[in-house]
Automatic annotation (TrEMBL):
Taxonomy, superkingdom: Bacteria
Coiled-coil blocks: none
InterPro entries according to UniProt: FAD/NAD-bd_sf, Flavin-dep_Halogenase_NPB, Flavin_halogenase, Trp_halogen
Pfam families membership: Trp_halogenase
Listed name of the protein: Tryptophan 7-halogenase
UniProt xrefs under SUPFAM superfamilies: FAD/NAD(P)-binding domain (SSF51905)
Length: 497
């Protein structure tokens, strides 16, 4: 029986892992400890999330109001992409389903047919989340009102450092042991190569049955001691740096969405929290130097900076395996995709949920590792393709960075998906894909890509019936979003009670 679990690292990944283990394994009598360096800082940037994050906190039994207060969160209904198609273009990838369930085929097929007859139609009028975001409105979905309303997905913008602190309290009060020390050595069993123990800078030795590597980009256990190679995706995702700076909150930037503005060699984010705004410029160092990037960021922020900008370096990609011998890497130690679709924290929770379910013993370890690795890489590759989509579909005509993105050879999986959509209007979606057909369509349409043909089946609905149906969905969405309170008022009222 393996029942001694050691988590190396205390960033967002380490504490999310510890919290879920506290809820699951500790209750079953496992011993879990987390080792965190008192000197090595965390990345601490992950501020934007996707709707699965709401479910993760619910699963932990965390009270939403308490969480929102303590991590200074705002609500997030999607991402506003500006200048991605070409300068002046503007679309929202919203978190709700597109339209309703559709009378036969998924709704997007009806929208695509409608669009052929009404080329000026705006897809955002059929996404409840986008419609609310445009109006700066928010309220919790209420299934009692309508199925359209219950389909409103939402996530949070959070202060990542406060979130790690929150989970630290959660985990340590539920039997996770917290050790503050630097790991200086990783001892492997000479015959099996399995990790036996970690040596700390005060000479303590921490032995364990199973180790979770949350040491960030260093990947001390999986990449370092177990030598699992890193697969780079930089040929598709060229950005490798970020400059980040917090700024003052204003009434104008307290919006329920993340802003992602394409810039000369990358893009800039803006994330509103209750006490400040997070900003960052993600860029490729091959096309823009660090000084240029910093000046560009400071010239584009819309309120007073609250600190000096700081720089982070990264490479897009993943480890060839996430689970090797008796070690699983979670968080940045397992791989990284730039924050364009805010997916890193999702990948953390997905990995630890999978691990909790597949938790091994000495006999089951290898076969479970194989399964875990297959599922995790499939999920990560789908997200990779979705992120690449934003870059490869750009129609910006002047900058070398964007032109190189237009001309790059795509992964086969994405090439096929695009070909299928362009020729048949079919968006293939399977359970590994975090992003729904509606998400894919909002980026495709937002960046000007419409299919050549529609599905045969869609033409069975008479035109007048289609007109009536589309108008009714649009009116319901306009009415629902119109009735909602302003995002800021909603949060203020919610936190006062
Ligand atoms: C520019 C940027 C923007 C991002 N934005 C988002 C976003 O909007 N949304 C999102 O979901 N994600 C985002 N991310 C990703 C997100 O920040 C990470 O997924 C998240 O912070 C998890 O990091 P981590 O815990 O894996 O690593 P880290 O935060 O680096 O933590 C590593 C931990 O390991 C410890 N450690 C390291 N070496 C040792 C040692 N020798 N001994 C003991 N301890 C050690 C450190 O002290 C630290 O506690 C962003 C990332 C970057 C780079």
């Amino acid at each position: 029986m393996w029942n001694k679990v050691v988590i190396a690292g205390g960033g967002t990944a380490g504490w999310m892992t510890a919290a879920l283990m506290a809820k699951t394994l500790c209750r079953a009598g496992f011993e879990v400890c987390l080792i965190e360096s008192p000197t090595i800082t965390t990345v601490g940037v992950g501020e934007a999330t996707i709707p699965s994050f709401v479910h993760f906190n619910r699963l932990l039994g965390i009270d939403e109001k308490d969480l929102l207060k303590k991590v200074k969160a705002t609500f997030k209904l999607g991402i506003n992409f500006i200048n991605w198609d070409k300068p002046g273009s503007d679309y929202i990838h919203g978190f709700s389903a597109l339209g309703d369930q559709g009378p036969g085929l998924p709704f997007y097929h009806y929208w695509l047919r409608w669009q052929k007859r009404h080329p000026d139609t705006n897809i955002e009028d059929y996404f409840l989340a986008s419609s609310c975001a445009r109006k700066n409105k928010f309220m919790h979905p209420d299934p009692a009102v309508s199925s359209l309303f219950s389909g409103l997905g939402y996530a949070y913008h959070i202060d990542a450092s406060l979130y790690a602190e929150y989970l630290k309290d959660y985990a340590t009060s539920r039997n996770v042991k917290h050790i503050k020390a630097d790991i200086t050595d990783i001892r492997l069993n000479p015959s099996t190569g399995y990790i036996e123990s970690l040596r700390l800078d005060d000479a303590t030795v921490i032995a364990g049955d199973f180790f979770i590597d949350c040491t960030g980009f260093k990947s001390l256990l999986l990449g370092g001691a177990l030598k699992v190679p890193f697969i780079s995706w930089q040929k598709w995702l060229k950005c490798d740096r970020a400059q980040v700076v917090p700024t003052a909150l204003t009434n104008e930037n307290f919006v329920p969405y993340t802003k992602a503005v394409a810039q000369i060699a990358g893009w800039q984010w803006r994330i509103p929290l209750q006490h400040r705004v997070g900003n960052g410029l993600v860029y490729s160092s091959a096309y823009m130097d660090d000084n240029q990037a910093q000046s560009l960021l400071l010239s584009q922020i819309d309120s007073e900076p609250l600190a000096q900008p700081r720089m982070l370096s990264f490479t897009a990609g993943m480890r060839a395996r996430f689970w090797e011998k008796n070690c699983v890497a979670v968080g940045l130690s397992s791989g990284f995709l730039e924050p364009l679709e805010s997916t890193s924290i999702h990948m953390i929770q997905s990995a630890i949920s999978r691990l909790s379910m597949l938790f091994p013993n000495a006999e089951t370890n290898s076969v479970l590792a194989k399964q875990f690795n297959q599922e995790t890489s499939a999920e990560m590759e789908k997200i990779r393709d979705f992120v690449i989509l934003h870059y490869c579909l750009n129609n910006r005509s002047k900058e070398p960075f964007w032109q190189d993105c237009q001309n790059m050879a795509l992964p086969d999986s994405l090439k096929h998906k695009l070909e299928l959509y362009r020729n048949t209007a079919y968006i293939h979606h399977d359970h590994n894909d975090v992003f729904t057909e509606g998400s894919w369509l909002s980026v495709l349409v937002g960046q000007g890509v419409l299919p050549r043909h529609s599905m045969q089946m869609i033409n069975t609905m008479p035109d007048e019936q289609l007109d009536h149906y589309m108008k009714s969905v649009r009116h319901q969405i306009a009415a629902l979003s119109g009735q909602m309170p302003l995002h800021r008022d909603y949060i203020q009222r919610m936190l006062m009670v």
